[in-house]
Protein: Fol3p
Amino acid sequence: MDLGLARVQALLRRVGSPHTRFPVIHVAGTNGKGSTTACLDALLTHGAGLRAARYNSPHLVTARDSLRVGSGDPIDTHTWDAAVQRTRHADNVDPHDPAAPPICATPFELLTVQALLAVTMLPLASQPDVLIIEVGVGGRLDATNVFPPENVLASVICPISHDHETLLGAHLGAIAREKAGIIKEQGLCIVSDQCTHPPSTAARAAAQEIAHSLQDAVDRMHARAAVATIPWGAMEQHAAEGDTLQRLSVRVSFAQPLHATGSSVDPACAQTDTHISLASSATLGRLTGCTTALQTLWSIAHDRSPYTDAPLVSACQHVRDRIRTRLFLEGNHAHINAALAHQRWEGRAEWHWLVRNGVRVPLLLDGAHNGASARALRQYLGQCLAACRGNVHITWIMAMSRGKDASSMLDTLLAPYHGAVAAQQLAVVPFSTPVEGMPWVAPVPPSELAALALDGPWTLDGPVRAFPALADALDWAASKETQALHLVVVCGSLYLVSDYYRM
Structure:
């Protein structure tokens, strides 16, 4: 992976600078980026009545899935294919200087330019009012970090943890500095609560290290910053009551931006809290995503940018006004919850049925692929098991990418569940390669992952099974006979989630 901005900026110029055409909400972080963007999309589209386009990576099934428009559906094939063709041609030939050499953009740079170009090729009436852009890796040198400061309504920093250390640095402070590279000069920045839950001494120290780097970036860029506070206590009470799979209702409080040079708050929109209701799968990730998205939109609605003569000043103000009047005037709680009901983020605490030969087994699909997301999955699963009030037989099916801390993830997920689990079995598989647009991605070979699992301190019932493909492992899992409630959990990689959806 070759991070840098020179190639993508050159390619954008060759295709007409589509990155300058729309207001943008730019989202970075290690965990929760996708959930936050999905909540932003639902709130903007179904709550504020705006047309939004959302760019996420990695894609779910095909590269076209990375760009969602309208109500969250992938962009149409005709427009996408035209954008792909034009982008690839421009990568090889400069339309303004045929003698110029090829740019040789990376696959992710090509994908990013294709997405930005595609939204400009939609009919005018279908073009978005606002773009929601998820960072690929890091932030400072990511291919998405190309937007003019005056176009960025908010830069959002989701929870940060260890991931991609070879590219971003070994320490959380260094990783946070790379993520904070998306903060714009005199821009608005929203920082999600960085303390993991439940908090510990180590977690608080990590949060302080992250906060120090983020504060340095905010000060250096003279930015306006607000923290999205996560109401963790509501989740604890929810779990204690055994209602993990039921609706969770919490009050979210909003923070005024600090270092607000050149900005002010409209007193007519001074509401400082709201109720949100999360139906089913009330996970830490979904709670984080919803509260971060709401704080982001509340701050945008109350913000007054110093860029008063920018080309998109009217378009940006239109977005702020719609968010303010549709979502945050007094009495709009029900409107917010109706919008959040449309939020869906595939492969995160997602329930399915595994059906084979008339047998139906509940299946939990989750793209947990690093230490923090594995801990979140374990906490959610632990709450689900407690709600079952009985022994459960778990069959794990896992794949992991090269470079991930597989041992730590196995230790997190397979550790004892305090009597709620009657037995655990593990199957390991590869995910399909090559991953479209990401040729560097490769799975840990199943034999290697199985050997690692067998060396661990956890207790498994029976040998670790290695299968050549996900379908084989699912067939094996469905054939298991058990007197206890049987649950299949598919996790370890977003690319494995993609394989599940392709079946």
User: Anything to note?
Assistant: The radius of gyration is 23 Å. The first strand starts at residue 24 and ends at 28. The CA atoms of residues 149 and 184 lie 5 Å apart.
